[in-house]
Amino acid sequence: RTLRSGGDVLIPTDTAGRALELLLLFEQTWRAERGLQRFPLLFTSHVPHATVEFAKSHIEWMSDDVVNAFDSKRENAFELRHARLCADAREADAVRGPKVMLASFDDLESGVARALLPRICAHNASLVLLTRRPREGSLASQLLATPTPRTLSVSV
């Protein structure tokens, strides 16, 4: 609904572990659901290319499904067809239209997610989706504790 309404989805995450799980989940969803393919999927951190290259070369440490797909079909789950890798907020902002952005860091205290947050919050149709309970006292925990449509004061 957020994307169809013209909003962006910001999913703050770490730079490797959880981010890779989410990246695979979204990549599989984009492959399966043709209607989503018109919306860009971004993996945005300071090291997205290195993270994905590392994951590609360590398939043996992944889930059984990922390993079996590689063994039987020579299909590397991290050969991304839909996700674009962006190294900073400027690259993510250059992608026009509603989009889903996996961005570091999950507490919103720093990183690309923090840089994108003011723009996301400025658009009523946009959504910040937290995938785990944030660290107490972090900006993400304040956001979670502040029900919409109240205002959360953020200094940039």
UniProtKB/TrEMBL annotation:
<dbReference type="InterPro" id="IPR036866">
    <property type="entry name" value="RibonucZ/Hydroxyglut_hydro"/>
</dbReference>
<dbReference type="GO" id="GO:0003723">
    <property type="term" value="F:RNA binding"/>
</dbReference>
<dbReference type="GO" id="GO:0005847">
    <property type="term" value="C:mRNA cleavage and polyadenylation specificity factor complex"/>
</dbReference>
<keyword id="KW-0694">RNA-binding</keyword>
<dbReference type="InterPro" id="IPR027075">
    <property type="entry name" value="CPSF2"/>
</dbReference>
<protein>
    <recommendedName>
        <fullName>Cleavage and polyadenylation specificity factor subunit 2</fullName>
    </recommendedName>
</protein>
<keyword id="KW-0539">Nucleus</keyword>
<keyword id="KW-0507">mRNA processing</keyword>
<dbReference type="Pfam" id="PF10996">
    <property type="entry name" value="Beta-Casp"/>
</dbReference>
<dbReference type="GO" id="GO:0006398">
    <property type="term" value="P:mRNA 3'-end processing by stem-loop binding and cleavage"/>
</dbReference>
<dbReference type="InterPro" id="IPR022712">
    <property type="entry name" value="Beta_Casp"/>
</dbReference>
<comment type="similarity">
    <text>Belongs to the metallo-beta-lactamase superfamily. RNA-metabolizing metallo-beta-lactamase-like family. CPSF2/YSH1 subfamily.</text>
</comment>
<feature type="domain" description="Beta-Casp">
    <location>
        <begin position="19"/>
        <end position="143"/>
    </location>
</feature>
